[in-house]
Q: What sequence folds into this?
């Protein structure tokens, strides 16, 4: 979080718990899926922030809260200073225009019975933008052109398009309201590599043209590394590390980031001798996450303290934050100037990592 | 002699829209104890090719030609009962989606021992014991107790371990792994690929590893075949393929993948356009409508897979001459932009 | 599991209360069906009717009447007296249950024996001549009215009026206590007629289910294991495809026991629940109509419950606490 830039989006201590219920006639709450648990993150104007992590770590839940498809359990989402988490009615409507979302599955995210023109025009109609008829059609065709779809295909149905083209339709729809921020939830995961590159390039061109900000959610580290300015790594509902994209995999501090990076098979046979760090076991259940550090059950460096205390999110300078009692790639000098970040979870301990 | 030799395999399906030539004359071989990686984009025929080797695409609407020789026997022409004796026994398969690939209503211990009982003359008790041993070997904790669980009670990674246990329980000579980790997270993928690697060494089997992830083959295969629209366009050792690739499609693939191990400043160079229809594939070279280096002849003449350099083990199906390709790659290696490569190689490109 | 069953039973009971309430309101408030008038006979004076009304407790508020009625059922298993037969409704229904159950279960076995093999074979040989012809025949059977089928079968095979008089015809029902042969003989024609349409429905249902299942990934796995095709179909395929068929069966049996075999019972003159319903409606015998309807609802609720439990048992993926 480079404090000099003003953040467009500020997420503070955001929590989403899905209650679990049980009972014969009357259901009582017996627990909760702690999908997102005290997460803080910001996105500056024109910036792309990548959010990575394994299946079920809560990435999509964050994304859906940002567009208010889900209501947060607690926490703040500030957009341009306004609180999105509690906004209602007209305020919410205005905010909704500013933040748009693109989903992973280009097949199911589009209404199969509507023409492409109608799909892209939808947000314009809902928000009453442009005059009905030719005016809107012209706007839609402009959008189609911008995302690399041929405007003559205005009246076609989604099934007449390929996967990559359908994702372009989704992007055009998200652009229609001229938002400032687009939340991209696994926008290229369902696409083949050659098509994936087309969409990635489209996104970065659009960003330059329109000065957009992106929150780019994905599990493919290579893609995230390519598109992001900063990257946040999630594990079981919490952020374990945030850093500039060039730094996070060069000098990972959190053991999980280290393991993630080493697990990615590099398309280079000369790196074959480096055996990846193999994490033991499975992801624990978010209903009953491990005490202390959530990663400790699979962490090769875990010790007693990891069980007892939740590690605070520590700011190591240069926008590099990590939450681990036994940080990697950190020198004594780095530690001396490090301090607990304001973004650190409320439940985390205030004990700084020790020097090894 | 190679363990498996595939010669000019062709598979077509008759559908309502016309005949789909899913696999169109592919040839390769797999050596004992080695891994052949097959890469290619969705729909290029990887799965159909591998299923056909085990006779799993035999049906009323499929047309299969060519030879698939396994230890001297042609699997395409032997009767179904002989094939059954080979499947799951000498040649095994694992699939992409471990949840849908396991029967939801049978306990996994049962599904494993069934594989034993099908091929070996042992008692049910012995088969069950073997199943537990195998589950233990692939790293399922509490194997004995877990063998009484149903597939849905496992995580994705554990399910794939179960699939591997089932495939390897009869000590096969060849394992065909069709995108075994595509549905899994990276850390789980690393676990599974590591496990397969360990077991392969231990059991000395050969493997065909199908994937669309170039990273996975770079790390795990000895030889690689690149498929495009039902055909193999390039085949070579891993090192050759990554260090001196010879086909424009391979170049395109390499240029379009983002690299986690390099600076992100380099832009991605996507392959333009879409993969072709397999019902009406383009004439000549299948790749010519998307190829930045296309020549006049490419739209009419079909290139065949020919040896190029690399001591006779590197094959490529491209009409560009070896010198032209060398010059192009020399430039692409530095920057993946086709336009500058064309300029550097002083190549004349046919107008499209 | 236990908790799940308990929850379902509680829901079932609640359901029955709701049904009984609705029936009560419909029948007792319907002006054309004033029980007192009906009870009093044709030429009763208004005075007489009023007295009957009082003696039946019909002058009290509906709610009180309903509570009374339910109390009687609950504590004495008393559904009231039929106007027409002058006996208790419950004994009437129990008498009729035997024939209906004989008809229902016999027919169910028959249609399963026909429908399941046909469904499997058609699925495995999908689009073959065999498949196409059985599917055409089954469509014909499904669309043929039971009534018509019944009459045709009597006309062909009944020992009194049939062209080939080999089987006992209408009105020859004997209870099981008369001996298995005496019992089964007269039921052969009704069984066949009742089973015909269902066998066709089941065959088609299983066929389409089975075709879907045979395209599943786990079937491919079973083949890749080297299992012989016969085993792939009969074990892995049928195990999955049969589950929804079994739930269908439960529902069908519930509905038939509830009196839905009314046409078959009429054509073959079998003294079953369906005929009782017909009689009761014909004579506007309200307590009987009410009793029969409640019983019917009871069977349907019970078999729904059985189906859900069976399903949870057959499909290990169903988690009881989700239901
Ligand atoms: N509506 C819901 N009710 C209950 N639990 C939910 C709900 N939505 C999500 N979850 C749970 O919350 C956790 C986080 O889910 P989420 O979809 O955010 O993960 P993700 O990181 O997007 O994963 P993926 O990579 O698979 O998309 C998961 O354990 C999921 O099962
Ligand atoms: N039974 C079938 N009938 C008709 N067409 C088929 C059949 N099976 C496969 N095909 C077609 O054959 C082509 C090759 O399919 P295949 O499954 O081999 O692709 P793939 O390379 O494995 O792709 P993916 O990466 O998506 O798994 C596709 O176009 C597919 O639609
Ligand atoms: S806090 Fe402990 S368990 Fe968690 S990542 Fe650091 S060393 Fe591992
Ligand atoms: Mg998600
Ligand atoms: Mg495939």
A:
């Amino acid at each position: 979080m480079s404090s000099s830039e003003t953040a467009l989006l500020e997420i503070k201590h955001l929590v989403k718990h899905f209650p679990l219920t049980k009972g014969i006639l009357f259901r009582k709450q017996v627990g909760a899926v702690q999908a997102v648990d005290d997460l803080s993150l910001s996105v500056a104007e024109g910036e792309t922030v990548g959010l990575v992590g394994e299946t079920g770590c809560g990435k999509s839940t964050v994304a859906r809260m940002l567009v208010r498809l889900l209501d947060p359990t607690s926490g703040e989402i500030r957009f341009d200073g306004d609180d999105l988490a509690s906004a209602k009615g007209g305020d919410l409507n205005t905010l909704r225009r500013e933040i748009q979302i693109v989903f992973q599955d280009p097949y199911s995210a589009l209404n199969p019975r509507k023409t492409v023109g109608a799909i892209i025009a939808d947000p314009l109609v809902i928000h009453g933008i442009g005059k009905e008829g030719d005016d809107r059609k012209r706007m839609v065709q402009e959008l189609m052109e911008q995302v690399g779809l041929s405007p003559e295909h205005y009246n076609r149905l989604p099934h007449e398009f390929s996967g990559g083209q359908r994702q372009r339709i989704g992007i055009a729809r998200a652009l229609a309201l001229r938002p400032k921020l687009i939340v991209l939830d696994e926008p290229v995961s369902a696409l083949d590599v050659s098509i994936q590159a087309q969409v990635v390039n489209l996104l970065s061109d659009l960003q330059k043209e329109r000065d957009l900000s992106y929150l780019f959610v994905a599990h493919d580290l290579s893609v995230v590394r390519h598109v992001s300015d900063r990257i946040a790594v999630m594990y079981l509902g919490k952020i374990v590390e945030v850093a500039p994209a060039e730094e996070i995999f060069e000098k990972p501090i959190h053991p999980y980031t280290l393991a993630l990076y080493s697990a990615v098979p590099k398309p280079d046979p000369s790196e074959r001798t480096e055996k990846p760090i193999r994490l033991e076991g499975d992801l624990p259940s978010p209903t009953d996450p491990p005490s202390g550090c959530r990663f400790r059950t699979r962490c090769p460096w875990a010790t007693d303290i990891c069980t007892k205390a939740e590690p605070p999110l520590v700011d190591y300078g240069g926008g590099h934050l990590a939450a681990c009692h036994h940080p990697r790639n950190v020198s004594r000098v780095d530690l001396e100037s490090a301090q607990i970040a304001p973004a650190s979870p409320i439940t985390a301990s205030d004990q700084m990592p020790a020097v090894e | 002699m190679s363990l498996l030799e595939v010669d000019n395999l062709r598979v077509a399906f008759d559908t309502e829209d016309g005949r789909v030539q899913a696999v169109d004359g592919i040839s390769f071989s797999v050596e004992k104890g080695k891994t052949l990686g097959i890469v290619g984009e969705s729909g290029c025929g990887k799965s159909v090719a591998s299923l056909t080797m085990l006779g799993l695409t035999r049906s009323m609407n499929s047309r299969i030609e060519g030879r698939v020789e396994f230890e001297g026997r042609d699997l395409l022409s032997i009767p179904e009962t002989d094939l059954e004796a080979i499947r799951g026994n000498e040649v095994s398969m694992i699939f992409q989606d471990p949840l849908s690939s396991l029967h939801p209503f049978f306990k996994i211990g049962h599904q494993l021992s069934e594989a034993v009982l099908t091929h070996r003359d042992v008692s049910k008790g012995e088969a069950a014991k073997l199943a537990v041993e195998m589950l233990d070997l692939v790293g399922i904790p509490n194997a004995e107790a877990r063998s009484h669980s149903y597939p849905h009670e496992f995580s994705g990674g554990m399910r794939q371990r179960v699939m591997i246990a089932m495939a390897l329980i009869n000590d096969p000579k060849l394992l065909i792994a069709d995108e075994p980790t595509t549905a899994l997270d990276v850390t789980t993928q690393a676990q599974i690929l590591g496990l397969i690697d360990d077991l392969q060494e231990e059991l000395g089997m050969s493997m065909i590893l199908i994937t669309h992830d170039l990273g996975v083959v770079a790390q795990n295969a000895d030889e690689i075949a690149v498929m495009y629209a039902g055909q193999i366009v390039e085949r070579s050792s891993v090192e050759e393929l990554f260090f001196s690739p010879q086909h424009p499609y391979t170049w395109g693939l390499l240029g379009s993948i983002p690299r986690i191990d390099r600076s992100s400043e380099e832009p991605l160079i996507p392959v333009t356009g879409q993969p072709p229809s397999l019902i009406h594939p383009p004439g000549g070279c299948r790749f010519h409508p998307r190829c930045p280096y296309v020549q006049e002849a490419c739209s009419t003449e079909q290139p065949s897979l020919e040896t190029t350099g690399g001591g006779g083990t590197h094959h490529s199906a491209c009409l560009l001459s070896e010198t032209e390709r060398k010059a192009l790659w020399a430039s692409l290696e530095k920057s993946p932009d086709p336009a500058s490569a064309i300029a550097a190689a002083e190549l004349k490109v046919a107008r499209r | 599991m236990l908790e799940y069953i308990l929850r379902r039973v509680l829901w079932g009971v609640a359901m029955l209360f709701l049904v009984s309430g609705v029936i009560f309101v419909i029948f007792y408030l319907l002006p054309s069906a004033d029980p007192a008038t009906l009870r009093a006979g044709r030429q009763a004076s208004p005075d007489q009717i009023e007295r009957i009304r009082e003696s039946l407790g019909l002058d009290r508020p509906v709610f009180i009447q309903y509570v009374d009625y339910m109390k009687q059922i609950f504590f004495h298993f008393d559904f009231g007296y039929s106007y027409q037969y002058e006996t208790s409704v419950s004994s009437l229904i129990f008498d009729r249950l035997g024939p209906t159950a004989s008809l229902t279960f016999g027919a169910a076995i028959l249609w399963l024996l026909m429908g399941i093999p046909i469904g499997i074979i058609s699925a495995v040989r999908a689009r073959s001549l065999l498949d196409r012809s059985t599917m055409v025949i089954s469509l014909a059977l499904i669309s043929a009215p039971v009534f018509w089928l019944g009459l045709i079968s009597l006309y062909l095979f009944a020992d009194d009026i049939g062209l080939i008089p080999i089987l006992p015809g209408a009105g020859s029902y004997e209870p099981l206590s008369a001996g298995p042969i005496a019992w089964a003989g007269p039921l052969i024609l009704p069984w066949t007629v009742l089973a015909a349409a269902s066998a066709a429905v089941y065959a088609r249902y299983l066929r389409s289910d089975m075709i879907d299942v045979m395209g599943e990934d786990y079937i491919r796995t079973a083949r890749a294991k080297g299992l012989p095709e016969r085993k792939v179909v009969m074990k892995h395929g049928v195990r999955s495809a049969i589950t929804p068929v079994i739930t269908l069966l439960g529902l069908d049996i519930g509905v038939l026991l509830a009196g839905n075999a009314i046409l078959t019972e009429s054509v073959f003159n079998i003294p079953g629940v369906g005929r009782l319903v017909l009689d009761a409606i014909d004579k506007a015998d309200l307590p009987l109509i009410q009793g029969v309807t409640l019983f019917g609802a009871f069977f349907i609720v019970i078999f729904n419950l059985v189906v859900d439990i069976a399903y949870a048992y057959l499909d290990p993926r169903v988690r009881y606490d989700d239901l």
